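Protein modeling request. Please complete all fields; requests missing the sequence field cannot be processed.
Requester role: graduate student
Desired output: 3D structure, token encoding
Chains: 1
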Amino acid sequence: MTEAIHTRCCIAGGGPAGMVLGFLLARRGVDVVVLEKHGNFLRDFRGDTIHPSTLEIMHELGILEDFLKRPHQEIRELEAQIGKESAPIADFTHLPTHCKFVALMPQWDFLDFIKEHASRDPTFHAEMNAEVTDVVEESGGVVGLRVKTPEGELEIRAELTIGADGRHSVVRDRAKLHVIDLGAPMDVMWMRLSRRPTDPAQTFGHVDRGKFLVLLNRESYWQCAFVIPKGKAEEIRQQGIELFREQIAALEPGWLTAWENCAIGRTSVY
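Delivered output (270 residues):
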């Protein structure tokens, strides 16, 4: 038989939105269950920037000092190479916040950090390997979620159900919620480029006619975002890796290690 759990709030999706929301609700005494379909957060090519506004929230929650002890990088200024000229494009040192920088931390480390602190509240519960398969409806409203776990089927009843399960949201689909298309005209191809000892240390971008490449310093390699026209990913793949390398080399003469290290996604900041 399907096991049933009752809670005040059930959140589908253990990404930054779901985990931080669950943490904030638990801090206010709300019993909350966060569902993450994977067994861990270890996935590459995700948004790894933590902005000063988010760091300010950590300060207000009293966890900023602990966060800053974790391995991270601090970006106080951003520079871009536009054609053959370099120019500063952002300076965070004048912000009215405790942290006048953008922190770079792999998203899995950030999520582990939030989960660790949230779990100290008895009202916070994170269920890993818990894949949402459907919503539970009664009297025309959503009253919970159906979940698949290694131990079997699970039904979670909640006063409030939140779908934070990404762009392919099961909750949104099953609840037949209307999607607001903002019409973003681009996709982003993520990849790794080898980093040479002579490369600059800061995170920066290359801009040229019809091309935009962002490089995030990961010490031993660059995590790169190459902006492409919306829906053109498969066409670029079919053109082959050599042509793609030539496009990247025109902006940055690093070496693309493997085509399978590319993934199509959207830019996200936290």
